Amino acid sequence: MTLRQKIEHEIRERGPIPFSRYMEMCLYDPELGYYSRHAEQFGKAGDFYTSSDVHAVFGRLLVRQFDEMWRMLGSPKQIEIQELGPGRGLFAQDVLDWSQKKFAEFFHALHYSLEESSPALRTRLQATLSRHLGTGRASLGKGTTSIVPNHAQTSRALAPEVPVIVFANEFFDALPVEVLSSQGELRISLRNGRFVETWAPASVEELEFLDRYGVQPETAERVEVPLAAQDYMSRITAAVNCGFIVVIDYGYLREEQLAGRHRGTVTTFHQHAVSGNPYEAPGEHDISAHVNFTALAAAAEHNGIKTQPLLTQSQLLMGIGEKNQFADAFEECRLPQEKAKVALQLKHLVTPAGMGENFHVLVGSKCVDPEMVARLSGLSFGKSRLWQPAAQEG
């Protein structure tokens, strides 16, 4: 049975399904979903790049920030980095290898845990991180993570009282979303063997979400309601007794939606080409939607996390790398042409023409003075953008 046939069967059995359910099956079906197949989704041979695919300096710079956070927590004997959706594990590998080489005290205290539900990617992680998994420096979760609202589960590798840094890079954009228009909530049905869009009355929860964190759709307009992301963030931050969260993704604030931007952002990717049609090849294309950072921050704040003003990936990396002039990127270069190549890769990570301005960063903390957190090197380039997420709720 193909994934299309599986979706068709569910529609015949249950009637028109919400778009979130369609997106969930396309991405996360245990056998046939996009992230479950043994395909090369990442990098040049795949459908999209992540920052870790560009150059190891992304992980190396974040190591400096994680070490700084650890010291801000008082250099505890143990600290856990919990990465959500680690993919192939390139970022984790860069963090572990570089901290072992350059930040020995931090590395000695570090345990790196990985939350990945895809069986195919879990196999990749075991291969990529075999050395660190073998020594017990890293661990792979049980793989029971669900992206369905009210059922999301994550588990700490270390005891709850051990400080934690929760890290999520391009994770929340891949969680299923509801889609609303002035006609109601989008449902997927069948007609003459084809997927067709129908509409049902929106739920009270969906409408309240838009009133609080987004905008109500105008005529002929669509907006997303990321209830799964909201639920996931709530559950993750509820388990943080002391530590930090770092979320990197493309997305927006509510003010930007009120200004008319970031409406109808559901997008599919295949072989680095963008398409607006998520129905043409179920399970073969990546599907994503821009992240509502206002809502994510509110969920974190509800659980005692103090969030910092949103900043761009460019600001984060420039702030971290300024002190040593990005020596982490060029250390292994011996020839001028090698330095030139790395300079181009670094430029892609930090400039507006590359990934620098497209991706935003949400940093939050618990049991740490927010004024101290604001002095983290990675936040030093973000002072000009003033935003207090807690004020958005209500």
Summarize the structure.
The protein is an alpha/beta fold. Helix content is 37%, strand content 20%.
Based on the model shown, name its key terms:
394 residues; single chain; Rossmann fold; alpha/beta; 18 strands
Number of helices: 16
Number of strands: 18
| Low-pLDDT windows of residues | 43-49, 384-394
**Structural class estimated from helices and strands:** alpha/beta
Description:
This protein has 394 residues and is an alpha/beta fold. It has a domain of 262 residues: Rossmann fold (3-Layer(aba) Sandwich). Helix content is 37%, strand content 20%. The chain contains 16 helices and 18 strands.
Q: How are the SSEs placed, and which strands pair?
A:
Layout: H1 3-14, E1 17-18, H2 19-28, H3 51-54, H4 57-72, E2 79-84, H5 90-102, H6 104-109, E3 110-115, H7 119-128, H8 130-135, E4 138-140, E5 164-169, E6 178-181, E7 184-191, E8 194-200, H9 204-213, E9 222-225, H10 227-238, E10 243-249, E11 251-252, H11 254-258, E12 267-270, E13 273-275, E14 286-288, E15 291-292, H12 293-302, E16 306-307, E17 311-312, H13 313-321, H14 327-330, H15 336-350, E18 360-366, H16 370-373
Parallel strand pairs: 2-3, 2-5, 3-4, 5-10, 11-15
Antiparallel strand pairs: 1-7, 6-7, 6-9, 7-8, 10-18, 12-13, 12-14, 16-18, 17-18
Helix pairs in contact: 4-5, 10-12
